[in-house]
Each structure stands twice: as C-alpha cells, then as structure tokens.
Amino acid sequence: MIKKLLTIVLISVFLLAQGCANTKKYAGTTELKTQTNANSKILLMPLDVELSELSALGFLETKADWTENAKEHMTNSIADIMASKNANSSKYETTSTDPNATSYQLAKLHEAVGYSVLVHHLGHQPLPTKKQEFDWSLGKDAQALAKETGADYALFVFVRDSYASAGRKAMQFLAAFAGVGVAGGTQVGFASLVDLNSGDIVWFNRLVSTTGDLRTPKAAQKSVTNLLDSFPTAG
After folding, report:
1. pLDDT tens for residues 49-80?
2. Is the pTM of this model over 0.85?
3. For the chain, domain boundaries
4. Are 25 and 204 in contact (CB under 8 A)?
5. Left, alpha or beta for 139 (phi > 0: left; psi -120 to 50: alpha)?
C-alpha cells in the first residue's frame, strides 16, 4: 500500500509540473476495424476507480461512498460517449472476485502497464528498447476475453482522485502566508483501448488535473470527456 501511494504521488508531482490540467493521448489507430464487420465490438471493463480524502498531514483515506458514486457517474458518461460515436459497446459483467480470474489479472496488469507508459513513454525516463515508439501490450491473455465475449476490443479505465479535507485546506491557507506550497487533491488517470486479438494497446490517453469532481454527474462527465478525447471511431 505504501509503495502504491508513493507511486501515485511521484507520478502526480511529475505530471503536474507539466500543467494543472491536461491530457496526453496516443492514437495508434483512429478507426476501429475488424475482419468480420465494420462495427467493432468494444468491451467496457469494470472501472478501476478510487476516490480518497487527503488529510491535513497528507494521508489518503479511501471513501467507499464517493467511489461508488463516481463509478456510476463515469459509467453513464462513458455510455453516452460510446453512443455518440455509434460504438457497438457493452459492459463486461462478472460477479467473480477471484484474484486469479482473467479479468482481474488483466485489470491489475493494465494498472502496471499504464504507470509504465506515464513514466517511460510520456515521462522523462524512456526505455532504450522502445525509444519513442508506442509499443505496449497486455499480452496474449487478452485473447481469453475475446473468446469469452466475442468482443474485438476492450476499454480499460484507471483513475485515482483525491480531495482535500477541511484540515488540509486550512493547512494550505496557513502555508500560503509563509510562502510554502501545500498540494491539495489531484486527479490522475488513464484509459487504454486494447485489441483483444493481439493484446496490444492501440489507443491510450492520460488525464491529470488539480480540479474536477467525480462525485457529481456534470463534473464527472467533463473528466470522462477529457479522458476519452479523440477516442477512435467505428470503421
């Protein structure tokens, strides 16, 4: 848990140095294609979203009610965007909590790969073997989802959002008088479209912001719209 929080903080600081609110997309494809039909089937994977409150001392406390509300708002917004693009999409439904399940393992892998993209492709630590080429994948295990559901692509979404507590806001106010900057809440996330036949990530976008509120429908819609900016169209 400590390592996870440190990773989020380090990435947040790095990205915020590039701007208070921005997106950075990679479009390996601008048109969704299949060998069987023009209306590609997109599987919407369960959202990997977590909302927390930032304490006065900088500790993160996960808020279950905020998280559930955010998932609902984001799910609705994603559905609206898919409909506006005439995308043939459907939610991946599962009741399994087995950590060995393919969907669970792919979600954790997406988190790890997504962080690697932020650091090594969009950041200042490029990998010598990849250089500037966008060559990232979830591997052949993704084919299991294609066989199970008949989908051609899968959309994975990962977001970690935090909000300053009253104590944190008070500390920010007092620190400002001393000329010291104290960070507030931060919204960090990324979305990936994965070709289930190969496991390759064919589209990727990041979102980082010090504003926004996933707890409300309208603000959540804005964040999701930014996160899915330039999402490929069906071909």
Report:
1. 999 988 777 788 899 999 999 999 999 999 99
2. no
3. 2-234
4. yes
5. left
